[in-house]
Write the structure tokens for this entry.
Amino acid sequence: MANPSAAKRMRYERTLQAVGRLAEKQRLRDICILEVAGGVVLQGQALVSTRDAYHLVSKTKVLSHEDLAQLIRDL
């Protein structure tokens, strides 16, 4: 169950900085950030190299309020 008090404490500026840093670490492009009841969904495309070529792969990461709090502490 989502922690309503955690949602109230979430500040957009710090949250977006933390999510943006995660997107950069995972080398995501064409990202979408969606706020949901339990936290945030980050979706984007990552460039992955294989022996033959480079491919864009869709990636989705669901971040709970607790995950977001940890990312913000790591800023």
User: Anything to note?
Assistant: The chain has a mean pLDDT of 89. The beta strands are 28-36, 39-49, 54-64. The chain has three helices and three strands. The chain has one domain: 4-73.
